[in-house]
Amino acid sequence: MPLVDRFVVSVDIKGFSGLPHGRQERLQLALARVLDAAAETAGVDRERWDRRGDGDGEVAVLPGDTDLALMVGPWTAALNRRLADHNDDHLPEMRLRLRVAMHVDAIRPDPGPLGHTGPALITLARLLDSTPLRAALDAAPEANLALMISEPLYRKTALAEVDGLRPWQFERVRVDNKEFHENAYVHVPPAMRPPKPPKSLKPPKPSRPPASDRRGPLDWVVPKGSADSGRVRLDMAPPPEPEPVPAPPVPEPPVLAPEVRHLLDGIRDALEAREIVRADLLTTRVLLRAAERERQGCLRVADGTGLPDALFTEIDDHWAEASGGRWGFAAQRLGSTDVALSGRRGELRRLSVLFGWLKDVDEIVPEYAELMLRENRDRPFFPTLRNPEAETRTNWDDEWTSTALSVHVRLRNWER
User: Fold this and answer.
1) Residues 285/263, Cβ–Cβ less than 8 Å
2) What SUPFAM superfamilies does UniProt report for this protein, alphabetically (predicted)?
């Protein structure tokens, strides 16, 4: 049987064995989605990996043409971002934190479930289960993952300073696990926390002058004991009346582009025809078009700030008229005043429960077809801001989260 060098990687969920069965199942699904999304972001084809699920993690043998530096660098960074997205979007008990091990060494084909055996997989298991890797993750409670790479992989990537990797990013540790005694290198990516909102900038209060210096325009200071003591000088001319300041012109409402106007008319026509789903999809589309984000298929949180009030008002008028005021942006804003919005992903889950999109904050986001079965007139269910065409992509729920947060953060400053 051929013996070849291959890149191997393994991940393990921290604290998995102590969780209830139902929570374990949800974390297993979340792990698969996070790994798929990280691979897509880094440009890695996971369909070519030989993988084996281990309940609380995964072991994979990658193709012979795998870019080692890509896996150690961009893929790990993408995995950290995806874990941050998941953890920011869920309650603490559903937090997903990983130990990750990587190695490159010899393997050979095997009829077992992974299809391979050999020294590479034995070393990988020792690294993943090592005390230094566990300690690194425990020492950084805010971190999403801790990575350990073997010394051969370290020499080929970080020590060679390939693709942005540098030796100082890794800490050398000693792994003593059973009969395994070798050096390895640990890297803990920084936790990705949303920035704190800036403090409001208030103009400084003018300093109050001493009482002796506070004089009006007709005040006259006369030294005590002088001949004029006790008199009031009346020959001072009063100050001139200030010139009236003209009122600022009332700005004209923004003129919506013809293609945006066409889509708004489509929403109205669809609702009049009781074609709720079509109106819902057109609502998402018109917001993407107004922000010039149709090609990307989603809004970033910052994109909402550039959308005009008039656009939200017209969309809301159509939905409110069709539902007797139960649906629309005004109803959604009114029904969510208790949820503080700063653009953090977990906030959308709380909104989703209020609107009827999710049954609870831990539920996996349903695909659009399933969501439509939950249509609810007793809650501000529409518009959902979903884009079903994007559901062919691995990270479609992340794109929807970004779009919905962009809109609802903007709605807090919407003036009808």
Assistant:
1) yes
2) GUN4-like
- Give the predicted TM-score (pTM) of the model: 0.55
Helical axes 396-411 vs 76-88, angle rounded to 10°: 50
Residue with tokens 């989603």: 298
Cα-Cα-Cα-Cα torsion 130, 136, 138, 143, nearest 10 degrees, comes to: -130
- Spatial separation of the C-alpha atoms in residues 413 and 226, rounded to whole Å: 63
C-beta separation of 95 from 87 below 8 A: yes
**149 has which bridge partners?**
102, 185
Sign of the torsion formed by the C-alpha atoms of 11, 14, 16 and 20: negative
Are 273 and 257 in contact, with CB atoms under 8 Å apart?
no
Q: Is 233 helix (H, G, I), strand (E, B) or coil?
A: coil
Angle at 139 between CA 134 and CA 143, to 5 degrees: 90
Cα–Cα distance, 67 to 83 (Å, whole number): 22
Name the token pair of 229: 């003591």
Handedness of CA 278, 284, 288, 293 (dihedral sign): negative
User: Using one digit for the tens of pLDDT, what is the confidence trace for 175-184?
Assistant: 998 788 999 9
pLDDT tens per residue across span 136-168: 999 999 999 999 999 999 999 999 888 788 999
Q: Which of 269, 268, 289, 267 is nearest to 280 (CA)?
A: 267
